[in-house]
Design a protein that fits this description.
Distance between the termini: 47 Å
Strand content: 5-15%
Structural class: alpha/beta
Number of domains: 1
Shape: globular
Strand order of the largest sheet: 1-4-5-6-7-8-9-10
Oligomer: single chain
CATH architecture: Alpha-Beta Barrel
CATH class: Alpha Beta
Number of helices: 11
Helix content: 25-40%
Largest sheet: 8 strands, parallel, barrel
Order of helices and strands: HHEEEHEHEHHEHEHEHEHEHE
């Protein structure tokens, strides 16, 4: 009887271990599966550092080859580069083609260097004016229009067709498709985007999420996406976090965007850490990756923010976070930036953050797209 119990326990343990090493797409490319597996492995002791639009532009510059503000300070690009599908719809065909090519090149360049890409989607409202934000006098609650049965569902499929075609175009120098972490409909628990909680029921949002994943994966044969679910920070329990969760079979990564607890509205390290712990614990339980999908402090006036706030938050409890990403450095604005540039007041502290063994940058990664040959970090 005891041996049967031990066998049953061991089988369950092994199954749990296997669950955390595969994405939801049974036909995921080998590189996508390896990225998922290796991020899970690294997150046990490290977190990859990411920066939105890091290599596209920075503080006072734009379009320079192989440049980022993070590299100018540390000597390495971020491990994770954030890009956006914002230009993939709502523009002229010529502008859409130009946007697709620019993002394609960025993703391929990052893949060729050994870095990781995450894709946000500031999706212009497909049925009304107002862009991706909700504007009271202009916007329409588009989710109900674009889900199956909605009057603009065909239009949404056409937009996804463009994303699918793009996904098949991101081939690296090795001839393989570059994997990306796709993070659609982020911060959906707020009211600032048209897909936000005030403008879509729980059922409508879940329908939108499931259709998006199913259409890309099953109809368009997109097999190089890892799907990330990331509300804002408006939760304090697991049940609240999962209120609009579409189900484990539809999500690879769970995360949150949190600026408010990290210095924008208040310094609340314990609160931010508790929310991250909820996410990390759920990821472990469900066989998912966890991440701090967006954060930062605009203009970084706090000279020790990197170690005393960000690093302290992520190390506060026993958590496994695949990556943390700070927002962009605007090329024109003198104040809208979230990563340091040479001479910025937090740069010395950022170097301490960079040198901490817990954080990983692009130079630290070693064969992250090879499961069998993965050597961890340099």
């Amino acid at each position: 009887m005891r041996s049967l119990f031990l066998l049953s326990f061991l089988s369950s343990f092994l199954l749990m271990g296997c669950a955390s090493t595969r994405p939801i797409d049974a036909n995921a490319t080998k590189e996508t599966e390896a990225l998922f597996h290796n991020m899970a492995k690294l997150s046990k002791n490290h977190t990859l550092f990411g920066h939105q639009h890091a290599t596209e532009y920075g503080h006072g510059w734009s379009g320079d080859e192989n440049r980022s503000d993070v590299k100018s300070v540390t000597g390495s690009h971020p491990a994770v580069i954030g890009v956006d599908f914002s230009g993939f719809s709502g523009r002229s065909p010529e502008a859409i083609a130009e946007a697709r090519e620019a993002v394609r090149k960025n993703v391929v360049d990052t893949y060729n260097r050994g870095g990781v890409t995450t894709v946000a989607w500031h999706f212009s409202n497909p049925v009304a004016r107002g862009g991706f934000y909700w504007v009271d006098s202009l916007s329409l609650p588009a989710v109900r229009y674009i889900i199956p049965g909605g009057e603009a569902h065909g239009q949404y499929k056409e937009i996804l067709n463009g994303i699918g075609a793009w996904a098949h175009s991101v081939k690296g120098a090795d001839g393989k498709l570059a994997p990306v972490i796709f993070r659609p409909f982020h911060e959906f628990d707020g009211g600032w985007f048209w897909w936000g909680k005030p403008y879509a029921s729980r059922e409508e949002f879940i329908s939108l999420w499931r259709f998006t994943v199913s259409y890309l994966r099953d109809s368009l044969d997109v097999h190089n996406f890892i799907y990330a679910f990331s509300p804002d920070n408006k939760f304090s329990t697991e049940a609240e976090f999962l209120e609009r969760y579409p189900g484990d079979e539809w999500v690879d990564m769970v995360g949150m965007d949190n600026y408010g607890d990290m210095g924008r509205d208040r310094y609340a390290v314990d609160t931010a850490a508790a929310k991250l712990k909820i996410i990390s614990d759920y990821a472990k339980k469900a066989g998912k990756l966890a991440a701090f999908t967006e954060t930062g402090l605009e203009s970084i006036p706090d000279t020790t923010w990197w170690t005393d706030t960000l690093l302290r938050t992520m190390k506060r409890a026993d958590m496994q976070l695949a990556y943390v990403l700070v927002w962009r450095n605007d090329t024109r604005s003198p104040t809208h930036y979230y990563a340091p540039y040479p001479g910025q007041v937090s740069s010395p502290n950022f170097l301490k953050f960079y040198r901490d063994p817990y954080t990983l940058f692009e130079k630290d990664l070693n064969h992250i797209y090879r499961k069998k040959k993965f050597l961890g970090i340099f």
